[in-house]
Design a protein that fits this description.
By secondary structure, this protein is an alpha+beta fold. It is built from seven helices and ten strands. Helix content is about 20%, strand content about 20%.
Length: about 270
Amino acid sequence: MTAVSAEPTTPARLVHAVELARAAAVEDATADLGRASAENAVGEHLEAVVEDPGTLTHYFAAEHGGYRGWRWSVTVASGPEGEPDEGPITVCEVVLLPGPDAVVAPAWVPWHERIRPGDLGVGDLLPAPDDDERLVPGYLGPDDGSLGSEIVVEVGLGRTKVLSRAGRDAAADRWYDGPHGPGADMAKAAPGSCGTCGFYLSLAGSMGGAFGVCGNEYAPADGAVVAVGFGCGAHSDVAAPAASPVAVAELVYDDGVDLEPVPSPS
């Protein structure tokens, strides 16, 4: 039995125009699937939904591959406005629509929100948003150099934008909690921290008290920003373990052979 969403009243003949609506859906599917496949692609009648007093939409299950949970939507109308019981029934629209349990693509997310650290490749461009809270105009940012920021900008040497306090805090948190921070497993097993290592290069400015760059080509963090509390086995104060200067041969005892005395010659 046809289920009808009871809102405005609608002519009964629109409710019962199921076969007309099905034929319209099959006709629409024929162009892509062929007549034989189109007949099978339009499944059982699911419901009829009243759009207004003279318009109603019939829904049919979509049975062809790749459209699980989708529905054929066929909207039909009858008669001119004010006279819905008169005139021929007209098919207004045929379209495939996703049902409540349909498999659909995830909601679109703008590219600048999808990008993640490490995604940028050779030739890619990643412009910062105009309202990026990590940046402020150069003349407002903290001065980490020997010249005043106003003088630097005036002579054309300054940067138009520098890290804001929020940007610096975010970078510090990221580096501190990252693989080269004091909480890393390597740091916990290290004989000393980066802050006491001769290969440690301090950063200039406000970050210098907590972070630097490793300058040891044999260290796992060479060329990377490391926290003062990070460390590894390539610390400059690591000494080779002491060894005995005299080689000691190993004594091997074989107790698996029974020894018997050899009788002396008579």
